[in-house]
Amino acid sequence: MAVSDRVQEALIKLEEHDVDNALIQLSIAVDATAKKMFPQLKNAQRIKSFLKAKRTFIWWTLYNGIPNSDGEFYLSFADKGYVSIEDIMYKYIRCRLLHEGEAPANISFDYVEYFKVNADSSLILPVAYLYAILWAVISSDENKNEKMVRDFCVCFGLKKANLNDYWGDEVRIKDAIRNGFEYDCEAILKQLKEQA
What we know:
By secondary structure, the chain is of the alpha+beta class. The chain has one domain. Helix content is 51%, strand content 12%. The chain has eight helices and seven strands; from the N terminus they run H-H-H-H-E-E-H-E-E-E-H-E-E-H-H. The strands form three sheets. It has a three-stranded mixed sheet. The chain has a two-stranded antiparallel sheet with strand order 1-2. Helix 1 packs antiparallel against helix 6 (127-139) and helix 4 (55-62) packs across helix 6. The longest helix is centred in the first third of the chain and has 19 residues, at 19-37.
């Protein structure tokens, strides 16, 4: 099965609010894409390398086009200390789901705006983060020849976008996503720099 099949299934599962099964499909899509990008690396390294390579795009997508640095993002997690988001996604979510059949009880996804660490050090991650990773998979150049069987349309602001039109084209998907932002932060920052 193709990467696009896994992406399509993840999108369907997210529509059904079946986050665990969406995560399984997303994990497979990320792994297959990462294997194309980093064929010389072992599984764990290539998946985390993909998430790091796409980090700026993922955060940009998640935070409505606010330009960001490529810096590490760590969360205080149970008795593990500070753990990178890539390690959380790979070791504690992906591996637990695929090898043990369930996500850890102290990590959950919800329809919230921000990453949240509770008093008991459990984590709540936004479902939007999964969509941002899906957009990263779709927009990866390595997947430019992919196509989902089903036309999957989403709305970015007032613009309806067929995701099959964005395989392998990060610039184009950013333009479509940007349409949904109330403000074009990149344009505002550029204008402020020009005025300074």
